[in-house]
Design a protein that fits this description.
The complex is a heterodimer. Chain A has helices at 3-20, 41-57, 62-79, 84-92, 98-108, 114-125, 127-131, 136-149, 158-161, 177-190, 202-221, 225-237, 245-254, 272-303. Chain A is mainly α. Chain A has a single domain (3-296), classed as Alpha/alpha barrel (Glycosyltransferase), CATH 1.50.10. The longest helix of chain A has 32 residues, at 272-303. The radius of gyration of chain A is 19 Å and the shape is globular. Chain B has 2 domains: 1-125, no CATH class; 127-237, no CATH class. In chain B, helix 4 packs antiparallel against helix 5 and helix 10 runs antiparallel to helix 11 (219-233). The longest helix of chain B is centred in the first third of the chain and has 26 residues, at 2-27. In chain B, 45% of the residues are buried. At the A-B interface, helix 11 of A face helix 8 and helix 10 of B. Chain A: This is DUF6895 domain-containing protein. Chain A: Residues 13-290 form the DUF6895 domain. Chain A: Pfam families: DUF6895.
């Protein structure tokens, strides 16, 4: 099969699964306070981010675009109750950045909650918000979102890059799972989730071009599909993506006929909600990697002199 | 069971020999090959594991003499080395790594005492075509198996392939460390010390120390790391 078609089809199938299982994106109103009401917001924010990428890149077919629009509408209208759940979340934990992080991609897609925005703007002016202790890569993501939202990033992103693992270009043979996720997210934040590959500083792009092939090889062999998918996104964010054929073929082969992508090795079995919670993320990642790689491959094709 | 007993004895003999060679690399003292090997003419009846170990270790069995330029091996040691060269000539259909490993042993022998050669053939290099277009994973694996060829000033076809692919070998080193394949990592690391164009961000020096720390209980790993460190700090011949 043509490689770009294989890459594209992974995303088509992933979106079919996400659409069919959209009720899995659910909040738990009566959750145990020890667990926290905001715990289940993350999947909703990730869904919105990936749908935003899909609309932005413009490589989706009409069915895909319709499914994505229905998905994001469902998440906003039902899961977030038109934004009211974000307001409630912010009331429960005023200093938490999570409602803001979930809101931003919805806002960029045209949804709006003035009440939530008022809360975000006030809370983010607090010194306490800027002082919240978090890992450098998480802080980098938050600053990037502040810039996109139109408030001053505190601190500016440029001050944060050097504090991330990736920003220091350490020994590539020390990378393990947690470090690898820090790497992928640093790339997501620096490129605005693949929108601006030029946001990757040249030194970091060179470093990734050198070592990413070794990491792709390793996590393919370990069948860690969730991480492999994120690394394939990183590849698509590089100035010269490799579209690693072996990694993509392995990734595509791991996908289930209904479009679900297992997180590690094979599909889990059991209660549907629990299965959803395990595989929604790798399936979102599959859609993300597919859309971005397809878009980059088509861009390259368009630029190739005939 | 007999087979597995024989392989255990051979593995033990390889570890013993490698431990002696690591000590020689560290101290610069003389090492001995004779004394471990039984008298007799070869592998006919019951293969002598100590002699077979010399063949397994290959040209590295005399590396301290080559690398440290210390006193040449005693004649009795060279005789043992020659015996290992002659006892296991690679068959015509041997894999390229066997052909090259034997070639490297014979070349070392010719350099140390040509009078002991006597092997058939003119000693010309085997081909390196099997490495043409080799993916970096396979390339690194094969180079690590052929670590005895990684010597300063060598110009074999295998060395030329390695010189052309420093980034690929560096990726292979990363892969080997990630997989906890310390022997492959040590062999790849030894090659990398000889190559120009190895990316700075690899962190080869600490990488070699890391490999020794994690896998150095295996004398073969300790030996390759020590050899790599000596190559790194010494002016090429």
């Amino acid at each position: 099969m043509n490689h770009t078609r294989l890459v594209h089809n992974v995303g088509v199938r992933a979106l079919e699964w996400l659409h069919a299982h959209r009720d899995g994106f659910r909040l738990e109103s009566d959750v145990d306070p020890e667990v926290g009401f905001l715990e289940r917001f993350k999947p909703v924010g990730e869904l919105a981010l990936i749908c935003a990428v899909l609309f932005r890149e413009g490589v989706a077919g009409s069915r895909q675009a319709t499914l994505a629009r229905q998905l994001i509408d469902h998440a906003w209208c039902h899961t977030l109750d038109g934004g009211r759940m974000l307001v409630r979340g912010q009331h429960v934990e005023p200093l938490s950045p999570i409602p803001f992080e979930v809101y931003l991609p919805f806002r960029e897609l045209g949804y709006s909650s003035p009440e939530a925005e008022r809360a975000f703007r006030l809370n983010q002016r607090l010194d306490s918000f800027a002082a919240l202790e978090m890992s450098p890569v998480r802080r980098l993501g938050l600053s990037a979102f502040q810039r996109r939202f139109g408030v001053p990033p505190r601190p500016p992103e440029a001050e944060l890059v050097g504090a991330t693992w990736l920003g220091r270009s350490p020994e590539p043979w020390t990378v393990e799972g947690h470090i690898a996720y820090d790497i992928t997210h640093t790339v997501f934040h620096l490129t605005d989730w693949g929108e601006r590959p030029e946001g990757l500083p040249a030194g970091i792009a060179d470093y990734l071009a050198l070592w990413l092939p070794a990491w792709l090889d390793d996590w393919l062999d370990l069948r860690r599909w969730d991480l492999l998918g994120e690394l394939l996104v990183v590849d698509a964010c590089l100035p010269d993506p490799t579209f690693d054929v072996r990694a993509w073929e392995g990734f595509a082969a791991a996908q289930q006929p209904d479009g679900a992508m297992p997180a590690v090795r094979t599909m889990p079995e059991g209660d549907p909600d629990e299965v959803f919670d395990i595989v929604y993320h790798p399936t979102l990642v599959a859609a993300f990697a597919s859309v971005l790689a397809t878009s980059r491959a088509l861009t390259r094709l368009a630029r190739t002199p005939s | 069971m007999e087979q597995s007993g024989a392989s255990t004895r051979l593995a033990g003999a390889v570890q013993d020999l490698m431990s002696e060679l690591v000590s020689a690399l560290r101290s610069g003292d003389r090492f001995r090959l004779a004394g471990r090997v039984m008298d007799g003419d070869g592998p006919e009846a019951a293969p002598d594991p100590a002699l077979a170990a010399v063949r397994v270790v290959g040209a590295d069995a005399v590396l301290p003499s080559v690398l440290l330029r210390c006193a040449p091996p005693e004649p009795a040691d060279l005789t043992v080395f020659a015996k290992a060269v002659h006892a296991w000539p690679p068959p015509a259909d041997a894999p390229p790594t066997s052909l090259w490993s034997h070639w490297a042993m014979r070349r070392a022998l010719l350099r140390l005492d040509a009078s002991l050669d006597g092997a058939p053939g003119d000693g010309s290099e085997p081909g390196a075509q099997w490495l043409d277009e080799a993916p970096w994973q396979f390339l690194t694996h094969q180079l690590a198996v052929l670590a005895p060829l990684a010597l300063p000033g060598e110009d074999s076809a295998v060395t030329r392939v390695a010189r052309g692919r420093p980034v690929d070998v560096a990726r292979g080193f990363v892969r080997a460390v990630r997989r906890r394949d310390w022997l492959q990592a040590a062999g790849a690391g030894r090659w990398l010390t000889l190559l120009d164009g190895v990316p700075e961000t690899l962190g080869l020096d600490t990488g070699l120390e890391f490999v020794a720390q994690m896998g150095g209980e295996d004398a073969r790993v300790a030996f390759q790391v020590r050899a790599a460190q000596l190559l790194r700090t010494r002016v090429p011949v």
